[in-house]
User: What shape does this take?
Amino acid sequence: VQLQASGGGLVQVGDSLRLSCTAPGRSLNRNAVAWFRQAPGKERMFVAGISGSGYVDKYGGSVLGRFTISRDSANNMVYLQMNSLEPEDTAVYYCATRDFVLATVANEYENWGQGTQVTVSS
Assistant: This one.
């Protein structure tokens, strides 16, 4: 399954970005969808995820209160709204899916997008 992540860019500290994830030709509506990020030389880390039902979401500790994940079922999209961006948020952001139940570990996800670069300049 091909996932498409988009919305990254170069921003300044305190700015906002919204990342988008979709799967052309396939519904995401029963999949748990998560965002991970990977900075150079570091492991891929869980950022946020939403369950297949849309009723459960989870966040990594460093983004709690700043990032919000949401699902737009009508348009087959999952968004990651990122506010109050910090230089430490600089990474490639990936969206990933698995069947229904949300997980926070990367190797539990079956499908991955190509990633979108987020760079926060100080």
The chain has a mean pLDDT of 95. The first strand starts at residue 4 and ends at 6. The chain has no helices and eleven strands. Residues 54 and 71 are 7 Å apart (CA to CA).
